[in-house]
Amino acid sequence: MKWIKLAIAWCWNHLTKISMFLSWAISFALPAWAASTVEILSAYSPLSWVIAGLAGWAIAGLGYAGVGIGAYWRTMAKIRSVWARSPNPVDPMETVFRNKRINVADLITPYHRVISNKNFIDCELVGPANLFIAVTSGSGSLAFHGNTFQPSETVMIKNDASPPNAIVLQDCSFSRCTFYGVILFFREAVFEAANRLISNLYWVTATPQAMPPHSEAENQPNPSTSP
Fold it and tell me: How is residue 158 annotated by DSSP?
């Protein structure tokens, strides 16, 4: 009795795998059996059986792919529907925001994670949110004046890195705003520009000032090994 319970439990825990195995087996065996009953194909057995079975696999694969694509589009449609119906205290299409408390996530869509060409004045921007600051060696069109970041951290990333889950800020201005629960991402090449753009950044990663300088001697040939 114990072994029966263990077997049932194992089958239940692996039900998805067992179902997939059986469906693929049936999709091969059924066309192969059907081919074996056709007299004109019997002369080419067992090759005709194998070809029929492979054809069954191909059709089943297309069916599974169609079901997966349909499920994906149904899910995306539900996301769009919920996002469109959700109450939003701000209109993300506005270009100027004054004296508003804004959830950063309300300014983006699930498909476009960029905030651009907007002005924020005396606003509270609430996370949690990862913000990638698109700044060049100058400050570009970004502007930060008299803002407060609490609690917030700043992270330096490689010059060729782009945080996949971050929200990009570009061509925006922030005046006397307060940021809550955000993490700011800057690339190494704009370290100095970042500190000019926003004062008193709290860096939680190593910065160029903290990195050990490269010794000039490291790049000089060793006299003992020179020809």
Answer: -
